[in-house]
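Researcher: Let's do a round of design. I'm pasting the structure tokens now; please hold your answer until I've finished.
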């Protein structure tokens, strides 16, 4: 599903115009980004939790050539689904 497909779905479910739904979605995404940058975590009860973790530098391998590569340390975003989301998916 693309962002525009998602906007259409939100607009239909919330009885908003597509433009209003897009503004809501963009505001939500900006708030999620801001929370993760400032606090490093965000919990949406029932839906799930986002957190920022650090990943150590490590060795990797180019699958085409087999050449060893150095992968630098960095930050990754983790998502842990909540109970409502797990139940909706059936497992």
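Researcher: That's everything. Go ahead.
Model: Designed sequence:
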């Amino acid at each position: 599903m693309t962002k525009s497909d998602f906007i259409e779905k939100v607009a239909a479910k919330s009885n908003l115009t597509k433009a209003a739904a897009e503004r809501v979605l963009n505001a939500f995404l900006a708030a999620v980004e801001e929370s993760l940058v400032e606090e490093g975590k965000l919990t949406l009860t029932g839906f799930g939790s986002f957190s920022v973790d650090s990943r150590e530098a490590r060795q990797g391998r180019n699958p085409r050539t087999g050449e060893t590569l150095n992968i630098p340390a960095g930050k990754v975003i983790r998502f842990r689904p909540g109970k409502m989301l797990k139940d909706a998916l059936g497992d």
